[in-house]
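[[Per-residue structure]]
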Amino acid sequence: MKEISGRKIAGVFVALALGVAPIVTAAPAAAGDPGAAIAAGIGGFALGALAGSSARPAPPPPPYYGAPAYYPAPVYEAPPPYRCWRERRPVFDEYGVVIGYRPTRVCE
């Protein structure tokens, strides 16, 4: 089913009000009757509001600016901690002969 827009409904109300207005005002008015003036003021305000709301175009859609121009800061990670331990390593003399072992710190 098609949707009925607000403009069409307002147009129907304006047309109905303009069509009924001559019939309603056919009664004789008394000079000292303030009710007619109040009714005319309220009716005029209502008709003006309906006509004004139907004549105003719909607002344009909000602008789309795309994705944000900023990016998150790079994340720096600390290097993994060194793994260190002590090993016994051989000690050589000037001829390449093992003369003993010495504890040495070894790290990765």
In short: The CA atoms of residues 88 and 102 lie 5 Å apart. The helical segments are 6-24, 34-55. The mean pLDDT is 79.
